[in-house]
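Q: Convert this sequence to structure tokens.
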Amino acid sequence: MTDLAKIPVTVITGFLGAGKTTLIRHLMQNPQGKRLAVLVNEFGTVGVDGEILKGCADENCPEENIVELANGCICCTVAEDFIPTIEALLALPKRPDHILIETSGLALPKPLLKAFDWPAIRSLITVDGVITLADAEAVASGHFAGELTAAQIAAGEHDTPLGEVFEDQISCADIVLLTKADLAGEAGVAAARAVIEAEAEEKNRINLPILAMSEGVIDPRVILGLQAAAEDDLAGRPSHHDGEAEHEHDDFNSIVVDLPEVASVEALTAAIVRLAREQKILRVKGYVAVKGKPMRLLVQAVGERVRAQYDRLWGTAARSSHLVVIAERGDIDEAAIRAILAA
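A:
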């Protein structure tokens, strides 16, 4: 049983674009009477997810309770970033009842769990649970793991960096949520479930709950209040990187592309699709100013799937466009990426 004096923390992990921010937004809108705080860790120098969540702030999760750490991995900067941030959240005039941590889509969750054993915070917080999100359509097709097919993944072949990230995120989970089930369809969800079950069985995570979800909607009572105390169960959450002296992030890289005002959203979308096909780009996200439009365009892409929607008025803010582009390190051709987007 978890020490009730400790503040519960839910770690929400999952690959790039799996829907972590959408889930947190749903939890903020349905707090079950709890005062929430949110810590968002971004991969890249421009924060997008934190700003999205701050736009949803309310009395149960005010803006000062939402903290974003960009351009780094909190499990690698424990003393510099993670500990001070947690201490600041716990020192708020109204202490949160529950803290949500959204990891980077490229994060390995186990090193983060180890950080909860630091003397400064181990008596104050506990990992209530690790919730791993997996894009059902991407898992079924094997797109999340580079060139691997679903059959190869089910057979335990995870030799790509993306496959290793996926493996660690699943093996660390208390619950797996198959997101975007509406896009995957019944067959896609079934195929994705089979891949997850095979991965969990390989890591001896028998009977790992796997639930399908669309648009981030799930009863908060299903994923909050698990009392898993995951920081005390590290041995039961095997990692591909167990035994390594340090936690490396050399497999992936990101750049930020600044653009002038865009004349055509369709042309921008086509350029991003081209990036995925020709440059093997994993993820694109950011904000864009569109000529003649008073509202800011939020752009989020995973591979060739691009979603663009106007999210709010520019108002007095500078009409500037910034896109974060993420790929495996060897696939970052900065000149080519900038040329395609500029065209």
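The domain at 252-342 is CATH 3.30.1220.10 (Hypothetical Protein Yjia; Chain: A;domain 2).
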